[in-house]
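Lab notebook, bench 4. Still working through the backlog of constructs that have no structural model yet. Next entry is a single chain of 72 residues. Request: give me the structure tokens for it.
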Amino acid sequence: MAYSRGRCLLQYWLNERGISQTDLAERSGWSVRMVSYWCKTERMMSVDAMYTVSTILEVHMEDLYQWIITAD
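Model written out:
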């Protein structure tokens, strides 16, 4: 099976953890603009960004996106 990333769930997790986009930007070292792009699924997070964000939010990396089956 093959998968591709769908909609970003970062804003959901920020809301769940009570963390603002600005707080995440300060803690991760990325700009608020970049965090906003990720939250709106305007840009995809790199693997490095996914790992950093998942560590900060205490979630699994795969929880940051909806996943779409692209092939069996």
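Notes after review: The longest helix spans residues 47-57. The helical segments are 10-17, 21-28, 32-39, 47-57. Flag for follow-up if needed.
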